[in-house]
Amino acid sequence: MNEVSGAVNAQAVAAKKKLSSSFFKKGITVAILSGMCYGLYSAFMTLGMSKGVWLNDLYAGTTPAGTVLTTFVMVYMLGALGSALNDTISGVWCILIAAAKGKLGDFFRSIKTKPGVVMIVAALIGGPIASTAYVVSLQMAGSIIIPITALCPAIGAILGRVLFKQELNLRMMAGVAVCVIASIMIGSTGMSADAPAGLMLGICIAFIAALGWGIEGCVAGYGTSMIDSEIGITIRQCTSGLTNLIILVPLWGILSGGGIGLAGELITNVITDMPSLVFFIASGFFSVYAYSLWYKGNSMCGAALGMACNGAYSFWGPFFCWIVIGIFDGQAGWALPPIAWAAAIVMIFGILLIAMNPMDLFRKKED
Fold this sequence. Notes:
Number of helices: 15
Distance between the termini: 25 Å
Structural class: mainly alpha
Strand content: under 5%
Helix content: over 70%
Largest sheet: none
C-alpha cells in the first residue's frame, strides 16, 4: 500500500515539475516577444516623430501657427509630447481590447485594489519619468541609447531579490552581466565621428530611463502576479498617457516660458496631423503588448530572467528601426553593423545563462 502511495506521490511531483517547467518556458517566450514588440513600438514612434507636422514645423522650430519654439522646447517638451501621445493612444487601444474581451468592468474594479495601486505607482515611474527620458534621449542621440536603457534588467534583478526574495545566484548575475556587455557592444556602434551633437547628454538621460524601467518591471511583475496582465497594462497605459498629457506636457510648457497655452497648441497640432498620427496609432498598438507581455513574463519567470529576455529589445530596437525606417520608409543611416548581429548572439547566451546551467545541455538525461 505504501509502495502504491509512494508511486502516486512521485507521479504527482513529476507532473507538478513538468507543469512548472512548461509555465517557466512559456514565461521566457512571452518575455522575448515583449522585447520584439518594444522594438516595433520604438521604430513606429520614431518614424511618426519624423513625419508631417513634426518634420515640417516642430523640429524646424515653429508651430503651424507660426509660434517660435526654443531649443528647450524642441529637445525636452517634444520628447515628452511624443511619449504622451504614444501612451495615450496605447491606453485607448487597451480599453478597446478590454471592452472587446468583456474585461472593462474588471479594469474599474481592479483600480481600487492593492495590486491596482501597485500598477498605478509602476505607471508613474515608468511613464512620465522613464518613457519621457527614453524618447528625449532617442531624439538626442538616436538608436544608440536603446542598448543603454537595456541596463534595466540588472536593476530589476537586484530589486527583485531585495524586495520579493526572487532567486538571484552567481550564474544568473553572470547572465545579466553578459546581456549588459551585449548591449554595450551594440551601443558602441554609435560612437563615430558623425555622432549627434547631443550624444553624451542623450546617453546620460537614457540611464534615467533604465533606472525607472528597472523599478517599474520589478514592481509591475509583482502586481500582475495578482491581477490579469491585460488589466494591469490597461491601468498602466491609461495612467501614463493621461499623466503625461494632462500634467507633464503642460509642466514642460510652463518651464519653457510658453505656458499652458503652448502645451495646448502643440497637443492640438500632433493629434490632428494624420501623416504622423497613423504611425503613432501603430506604435501605440505595439506598446500595449510591449508592456503587457513584459509584465506577464516577469510574473511567470521572475524579474531577472523576464527583464533579461525583454532586454533583448536592445537588438530588436535597432533591428526594427532598420526594417521600418531604413527599408520601409527609405531613410538612410539605419542599417545594422556586423557587431550588432554578433552582440545579439552574445545576448542569447546571456539569457540562456540566467535561465539554466548551460552544462545541463551536455549531460545525459535520466530516465
